[in-house]
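User: Design a sequence. Structure:
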């Protein structure tokens, strides 16, 4: 039941019109939104690792764990900023 999809001249014109009306005008906004979404995803994935380091430092009586809560707070600020700016309508 698979049909051969042939891109006709009409579809090519429709794609060109879509690109010129929407994508070209907002190319910078779209790129910035993708970059900020990647920042949010990366900082969200770092949380469990840093929290594990804090708990391991507490259990092992290691004194180097004290810097990790500050790093977690810094990561939270970066994540919050990336989240806010990626959700705004205009940059």
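Assistant: Done.
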């Amino acid at each position: 039941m698979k049909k051969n999809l042939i891109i006709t001249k009409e579809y090519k014109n429709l794609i060109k019109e879509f690109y010129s009306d929407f994508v070209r005008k907002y190319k910078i906004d779209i790129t910035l939104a993708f970059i900020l979404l990647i920042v949010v995803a990366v900082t969200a994935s770092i949380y469990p690792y840093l929290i594990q380091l804090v708990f391991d430092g507490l259990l092992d009586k290691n004194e180097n764990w004290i810097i990790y809560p500050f790093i977690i707070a810094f990561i939270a600020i970066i994540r919050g900023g990336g989240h806010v700016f990626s959700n705004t309508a205009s940059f």
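Residues 28-87 form one domain. DSSP finds three helices and no strands in the chain.
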